[in-house]
From TrEMBL:
<dbReference type="Pfam" id="PF01654">
    <property type="entry name" value="Cyt_bd_oxida_I"/>
</dbReference>
<keyword id="KW-0349">Heme</keyword>
<keyword id="KW-0472">Membrane</keyword>
<keyword id="KW-0479">Metal-binding</keyword>
<dbReference type="GO" id="GO:0070069">
    <property type="term" value="C:cytochrome complex"/>
</dbReference>
<feature type="transmembrane region" description="Helical">
    <location>
        <begin position="119"/>
        <end position="140"/>
    </location>
</feature>
<feature type="transmembrane region" description="Helical">
    <location>
        <begin position="152"/>
        <end position="174"/>
    </location>
</feature>
<feature type="transmembrane region" description="Helical">
    <location>
        <begin position="431"/>
        <end position="450"/>
    </location>
</feature>
<dbReference type="GO" id="GO:0020037">
    <property type="term" value="F:heme binding"/>
</dbReference>
<keyword id="KW-1003">Cell membrane</keyword>
<dbReference type="GO" id="GO:0019646">
    <property type="term" value="P:aerobic electron transport chain"/>
</dbReference>
<feature type="transmembrane region" description="Helical">
    <location>
        <begin position="86"/>
        <end position="107"/>
    </location>
</feature>
<dbReference type="GO" id="GO:0016682">
    <property type="term" value="F:oxidoreductase activity, acting on diphenols and related substances as donors, oxygen as acceptor"/>
</dbReference>
<keyword id="KW-1133">Transmembrane helix</keyword>
<feature type="region of interest" description="Disordered">
    <location>
        <begin position="1"/>
        <end position="21"/>
    </location>
</feature>
<dbReference type="GO" id="GO:0046872">
    <property type="term" value="F:metal ion binding"/>
</dbReference>
<keyword id="KW-0408">Iron</keyword>
Amino acid sequence: MVGGERAGRPARGRARPAAGALREGSRMDSLLYARAQMGMSLAFHMIFAAAGVALPLIMVVADALWQRTGDRDYLEFSKRMAKGTAILFAVGAVSGTVLSFELGLLWPSFMGTFGEVIGLPFSLEGFAFFTEAIFLGIYLYGRDKLPPRLHLLSGALVALSGAMSAFFVILVNACMNDPVGFTMVDGRPADIDPIAAMFSPPWKHQTLHGILSCYQATAFVMTGIHALVLLRHPGSTLFRKAFAVTLVLAGVTALAQPFVGHYAAQEVGARQPAKLAAMEAHFETSARAPLLVGGLPDVERGEVDHAIEIPAGLSVLLHGDPDAVVPGLDSVPRDAWPPVTATHLAFQVMVAAGSAMALLAVVGAVLAWRRRGIPDQRAFLWAAVLASPLGIVAMEAGWFVTELGRQPWIVRGAMRTRDAVTPFPHLAAPFWMFTALYIFLGVVVVYLLVRQLRAAPLGVTGAPGGARAVGGGAADAS
Ligand code: HEM
């Protein structure tokens, strides 16, 4: 992008780019690197944040089952979940802190202009985070010191405050997607109503869909890990119970998510037509709008190649009426189009992964019903292993849809992303530095979690192989 020849003053030898072109070029470089760095940080943080929301719930359910049944396998399972929660909470705290710095340093105009608008949910998110940290400390160190019910309550508060953190941070994003609660005067928000801004129109579908995706993504990973161990050690009592607990969470969320996603799509269609048109690669405003499955949009021609077309499908899905008109990208000025191909592909990936998980949930439910117990057929266990990354894939793709579909705006209709970026010119350096940091953190986390898993006993209630650990060593079954 930097300095084309045509921008330079005529001179002997190579023409030199004009200062203005250089400034514009370096601004585009900054924008590219700032977006890449922010995107990478969020993509990384999201996985730990999702686990931080869902693992405490699994930990508390296992603990409650232990208190109800007195079965020590559940106690062991809840202890393992508590250790996993602690590791992921620490990494989530580091990556979350990086993000809060990045918001101010990479997007100073955004934070400077809209700080008062989005400040309330951000502060509440900080409050929820501290609550989570306090109760996690109490839960981790209070097991033998507190009465069991009080200990369980502290675990439930960890789960609740984790979900509240996600809730508040998604409210910020909802306000960026469809800002209300202020008026723009001379490029700055005035007459700010922080409560109205916090509960901007997309808040219901975004918080519901986003928080559910945390439980779903984590439950699928955990189910896959437990299924893998069961394939190697079918007699493990602990892993059978752990598999059952996470499978129920995975199944329920996978069946609920398509309905919630459908509601989200209807809401987006009603208030963010450009995002919906990009998601569906719907170029021309039309009645009886078709639903496209797959396909590669050609933005220049305004057509989609290789898609399966369901006539009037989009009109029916959005409005329940085949004759309903659905606004296309042609209803939006060309310079306000989101990146159509990336948004459409991300949407297709999310829906495909969501459908595959829902299908697996149905198969699991049928097998469980026919067997009147845990569906532990080897083929099903393998399917659970293969499906384990799908929740994370769908979650990341969904976040791409939300963010890319809002472009070119950082706050829709109020500030463009390119006007929010820092003018600091050397953003390549922090980008590569943080990439290295995230790779390092990722490797450390995987190492610690695998170590945890290998140290886990196969069962503490008299499983074949006694308290042998997954990794083969002696287990600490205390
Ligand atoms: C199966 C059908 C699904 C449909 C129809 C659907 C629909 C949508 C729509 C319309 C959005 C954009 C919301 C907005 O920008 O306001 C979205 C975002 C998102 N989706 Fe999905 N989705 C589906 C499945 C999934 C699954 C399975 C997951 C993850 C496990 C997921 C995770 C997300 C996330 C994290 C976002 C961004 C946060 C948010 O806006 O709520 N989605 N989805």
